[in-house]
Design goal:
The chain has 358 residues and is α/β, with parallel strands linked by helices. It has one domain: TIM Barrel. It contains ten helices and twelve strands. It has helices spanning 2-16, 21-32, 61-67, 95-107, 115-119, 157-167, 189-200, 221-238, 308-311, 313-322, and strands at 77-80, 110-113, 130-137, 176-179, 205-208, 245-247, 262-265, 268-271, 274-276, 299-300, 337-339, 355-357. The strands form four sheets. Strands 1, 2, 3, 4, 5 and 10 form a six-stranded parallel β-sheet that branches. Strands 6-9 form a two-stranded parallel sheet. Strands 7-8 form a two-stranded antiparallel sheet. Strand 4 (176-179), helix 7 and strand 5 form a beta-alpha-beta unit. Helix 4 (95-107) packs parallel to helix 6. The longest helix has 18 residues, at 221-238. It is globular and about 55 Å long.
């Protein structure tokens, strides 16, 4: 909990000093390959890598032992904000930094899944591989745009993900984008719809990050619900609702935690299956007793300077490589939860019949 407080404090300072939305769109325009607000062309038939999940296998104690499966291990949920050629805030990353980090993930055997797949336990990745959840906050223009050929712009998050997936075929091209009222800097509803549906039709998740990105502890319960419902209504109109996951602005939990789990405003209801913090360590597996879907840990993508010496992605990815017995390693079987015998008791009781211990 202390780690999250540290990261929340840093995030509040960093985000409050960012340019206004209008300024941010203007600064990001060269990265996106299209002017902000320009129509998103219909997707052409392309040879982009597929997000299809692999065919399932049937895990046995012997097969689980062979790959050292541990589905009670921790999972890195990485948090990104803007992708900028020139970083303007500590939480910004350059296209090169994002690309290098994702290529390292691919080389280290990580396979991306969405936040929705993570919280619902749909971790259908190949045996011996490790899940990673790539999450992008705020729906910034540097996260998604299409170039003149209708392809993801090179230095956007989606463009980078596809580049890495083409180079490393087992690096599944999916991610979660938590957006506010102007997804990807687009203001026209038609453009928003085409952008969101381009992503969701290819396996990406687009979900709720509040309407105007407020500091939730400073709002009444009613105002918190309004912020969430307004975005749910938008996502529903864009073809992406209802959201199963929600990322807290600044990683800051409101005074009454339940207000961001489920509720209603103006006759509309919402209910999430996972609420995500801003930091600052790997998440527990969704299969263990200690997993708390109401406050899921994330890791800021960054180096090891300053407050990031222990709380950001470079540190934690190095730590996981040095502690492979603590990391989630898949058995390749979506119907089994494979763990070493010593960890059998850590699995949540409702999955007891699915445990494959060795």
């Amino acid at each position: 909990m202390m780690a999250n407080i540290v990261v929340v404090s840093a995030a509040v300072v960093a985000l409050l000093t960012l340019p206004t939305p209008t300024e941010a769109v203007r600064q990001a325009a060269p990265l996106t390959g299209a002017a902000p607000g320009a129509p998103v062309p219909p997707p052409p038939q392309t040879d982009l890598p597929s997000a299809d999940l692999p065919p399932p296998v049937q895990a046995t104690p012997e097969s689980a032992r062979e790959v050292k499966a541990n589905e009670a291990g921790v999972v890195p949920v990485l948090m990104y904000h803007r992708i900028m050629k020139k970083r303007l805030a500590s939480i910004d990353r350059t296209p090169s930094q994002v690309r290098q980090e994702m290529e390292k993930l691919a080389r280290d055997g990580y396979v991306p899944i969405t936040a929705r797949e993570f919280v619902t336990g749909k971790i259908d990745i190949p045996a011996g591989r490790h899940p990673v959840v790539l999450t992008f906050d705020d729906g910034h223009p540097s996260h998604f745009a299409l170039d003149g050929n209708g392809m993801p712009a090179k230095d956007t998050a989606v463009g980078i993900i596809y580049q890495v997936a083409k180079k490393y075929p087992e690096f599944r091209p999916v991610a979660t984008f938590w957006v506010n009222r102007e997804p990807f800097g687009l203001r026209d509803r038609h453009d928003q719809t085409r952008a969101v549906q381009w992503l969701t039709s290819r396996g990406f998740e687009v979900a709720n990050h509040t309407w105007s990105h407020p500091y939730l502890p400073g709002l009444s319960n009613k105002k918190v619900a309004e912020q969430i419902v307004r975005t749910e209504r938008l996502l529903d109109k864009l073809g992406a609702g209802p959201s199963d996951t929600f990322a807290l602005p600044f990683g800051a939990m409101p005074r009454k935690r339940s207000t961001v789990q489920s509720g209603k405003w103006d006759g509309s209801r919402f209910a999430f299956k996972g609420v995500f913090l801003a930091g600052a360590q790997p998440s527990e597996s969704p299969f263990v007793k200690d997993f708390d879907w109401r406050a899921i840990q994330r890791i800021q993508s960054n180096g090891k300077k300053g407050e990031c010496r222990r709380w950001c992605s470079q540190y934690w990815l190095e730590w996981l490589n040095s502690h492979p017995d603590r990391r989630y390693t898949a058995d390749g079987d979506p119907d089994r939860v494979s763990v070493p015998e010593r960890l059998r008791g850590t699995i949540t009781p409702k999955l007891r019949q699915q445990v494959n211990a060795y």
